[in-house]
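USER:
Working in pairs, take the chain set out below, taking as long as you need, and write a paragraph about the fold.
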Amino acid sequence: MYKLPAPRASDMLNKVPEVALSFWIIKIMSTTVGETGADFLAVNAGWGQGMTRTVMAALLAAALFMQLRTRRYTPWIYWLTVVLVSVVGTQITDFLTDGLGVSLYASSSAFAMALAAIFFVWYRVERTLSIHDIVTRSRELFYWAAILCTFALGTAAGDLATEALGVGFAWGAVAFGALIGITYATWRMGGNAVLTFWIGYILTRPFGAAVGDLLTQAKTYGGLGMGATWTSALFLSVIVMLVATAQIGMNGSRPAQAAEHPPF
């Protein structure tokens, strides 16, 4: 059986991108695509929930395998994995809610506890949660486990706020956007960089999902009626352009070990 290579820490460059404005733009759009893309494949494309879950899980496994094999940050592989994690994370929550009848209160609490457990074990083992030190196989596995959990948690929390609590898509986007703004302000005033990064990362998921629902849902349900097809195509196009720009920039410059960067 073929095994993934396990390069030494000294052989691996940091496996995640620099956290700049483009990072957050792509991240938010990826979360929106996770919401709209899953709906498009299951409903508009006629795949159904079962086939969509199976195909997306297989594609995520393949993308994650490529990501783990690389020894440095490769934009197109990394962001392909993030987009697929977003879709799968959305489907996990939807399956629990719609398929198994698990309440959004219960799933939000469960994912929050699971994420806390991942962070606890990650820190106990590696003594750091910084994404600028993803230079070993174990840290990378912890990182992607946390990322998947943040997407599932963000989906559950977003649905809880916008649907179960009746906040609505527009006000949900405003509320989560305001929380992201508060997190950014906290970091600017000297807040812990690692903590504020992960809080911001979690909040961008329900924010992107609320924006996606606002754009795609019919006007009778409080949306703008753009539909999942056009919204997914638009956001994917922007993601592709930004990632292509990053990839070209990587190919044109000599890779270097990433230094510590601010989270926003």
About this structure: The first helix runs from residue 21 to 44. Residues 4 and 68 are 8 Å apart (CA to CA).
